[in-house]
Protein 1
Amino acid sequence: MAEKILSRRGDKVVYAGDLAVVEVDQVMVVDSIAQSFIERMQKDLAALPKYPERVSIVVDHVAPASTVSVAQAQKEAREYAAQTGVALFDVGRGICHQVLMEEGLAKPGWIVLGSDSHSTTYGAVAAFGTGMGATDIALAAASGKTWLRVPESVKVTFKGELRPGVSAKDVALEMIRTLGADGATYQSIEIHAGDRFTRGERMTLANLCVEAGAKVGLVVPGGEILTLYDVPDWVYPDEGAAYVQQIELNLSILNPRMSAPSEVDNVHDVSELRGLKVDQVFIGTCTNGRLEDLHAAAEVLKGHKVSPGTRLLVIPASSQVMEAAMEDGTLLTLQRAGAVLGTPGCGPCMGRHQGVLAPGEVCVSTSNRNFIGRMGDKDAQIYLASPAVAAATAVMGRIALPGDLG
Ligand SMILES: CC(C)[C@H](C(=O)O)[C@@H](O)C(=O)O
Ligand code: SF4
């Protein structure tokens, strides 16, 4: 799929290892990188965005601003957007990847570059989404193009169906464990899911691909995607395509999984970690902050209370998610159970604000990274899990499965 998309969007047919120069359909810049992006554009390149309608800036990582310097950088990003006509999604609109998907700024066969490593998320709809640094992002905005080495592909296939209580997050964690944290470095993880998984679940799978080092994570379109998008024939992989690695996951034997500190591929069954005392539970992020994730959490939390001594933070991934969860009563269920609700955005995911951890604290999070110091102090510990497991843990105050609630 990577070869096919890069061939189609470039000026020649390319194969793994070749250098491709391709059209870029969307360039996404996050708040934390906006200042260096603007500097590259104005000082180094002395250029305006070639196609302003193909550039968006999202204020999501530290939103609302936490310090004067963050506020100043965001002010400059707003001014830049007003001057150049690029789209600005400001405080509260949500996490960049969720927002781009909701705004229709990532589509099958598109090339979407983001100044954020989890730009692999767009692979959920077969867009070649990948993260790049401020310099490459600025070059793409100024020229409308980018260049990259065509990645080799890893084929991931599934056998059987998930049992109740096991989610796409568990599949994603198991996939990362199987490949290893650097097991797919600069490769394209091509996920053959058949008609399984919703768009949101596919976003969870594609999102985690970068945690195996992948350049891109492409989910072969099927199921719900075919009803939501026009999928061009040329995005599908050819019969007999070449893969450098092939793995098969048997979904029917998968249990709820959890990634223990401090590497994402340190994955265990939740039952092995059960009972560990937890200070904070965080449900949200570009991995698991969507409506279906809040539903899964609310289903577990309904009629229960968060354990005294444990904090439950719930941050919807976007304003649209928040609105839908307000309308259908999900937020009320969560609030009544004792959750603390936050402004749509990244929240404490990368430890900048809204719930950073003290030394020695333990957090169960639905996010995608549990590195040392990721959410605050270097002596805090982060366990990654699904929304249902996170919710059960909040009620018990200890790592738990929904079935433990009785
Ligand atoms: C701030 C941003 C550049 C960073 C990333 O690239 O992923 C962040 O989103 C993260 O998850 O660590
Ligand atoms: S939610 Fe977390 S992982 Fe996703 S973009 Fe924000 S900081 Fe990065």
Protein 2
Amino acid sequence: MEQVITASDHIKRYLIIPSGGSGVRMGAELPKQYIRLGGKTILQHTIEALAKHVDYIVLGISYDYRIIVEDMLQTMGLADRVHLTVAGRRRFDTVQRALRVVPDGVLVGIHDAVRPFVSGAVVNKCYEEAQRVGAAVPVLQLTESLRYLPEDGKQPQPSQAINRSHYRLVRTPQVFWSERIKEAYQQPFQESFTDDCSVYDQLYSDLALVPDTTENIKITTPDQLYWGEHLLSISRQERLRLTKKLLSSR
Ligand SMILES: Nc1ccn([C@@H]2O[C@H](COP(=O)(O)OP(=O)(O)OP(=O)(O)O)[C@@H](O)[C@H]2O)c(=O)n1
Ligand SMILES: C[C@](O)(CO)[C@H](O)COP(=O)(O)O
């Protein structure tokens, strides 16, 4: 499964979709990426949202689902553009393994299998900014207040209000020059590595923040399936219109 894909002379866009989670917080019979929304799996919706914006996709999956995934890729006509790798125990391990088949000298995005509502405009902007700056990530401003909980729960008080203007919610796709993120992923795992930027930050500091759209939710818990159904019921055209409006207002 793990043979390196050859890069050609112009800058190619690779995309890793870590899809090897088991969905503990969802608590469903199947891992959540294989749950159906509107007749298709969440994984298929995610691939459909991104495939037209990239050259190659690397899907990190649990071997148990290989046949289902291969059938889905055949149906989608994507079998020759998608490379399967074996998922690891943590998201970090899945991405680390998938990076082994990505050549140097290309841009590589990493996008959660369970974020099917990402906007094409945001995907393109992240690749463009990563090419220009070094790395790029979609972020969302906070629209609710935040409180900080000190570790001992006592000092100076059990919880404190903090200035939310200094914070952003971090989403995916997170896009990098491939040789840099491959180098960063050679580090041993740390608990603070909750996404790919946190791994990259250890070695580099050139990260562009791209405004994201609200819809790019990560389907994690059962209530988010309800939001997923709702977002699917809004037509693609309408979502595109709302995305353009949002991006032009920033
Ligand atoms: N060993 C793992 C764990 C997670 N992921 C992927 O990382 C993304 C974000 O992970 P998360 O939402 O935490 O998914 P799960 O690990 O499935 O969820 P949970 O933590 O509730 O089990 C998902 O696309 C998931 O499939 C992965 O590829 N390999
Ligand atoms: C990568 C990520 O989606 C960025 O927001 C997030 O950190 C994944 O967190 P999870 O707890 O592994 O789902």
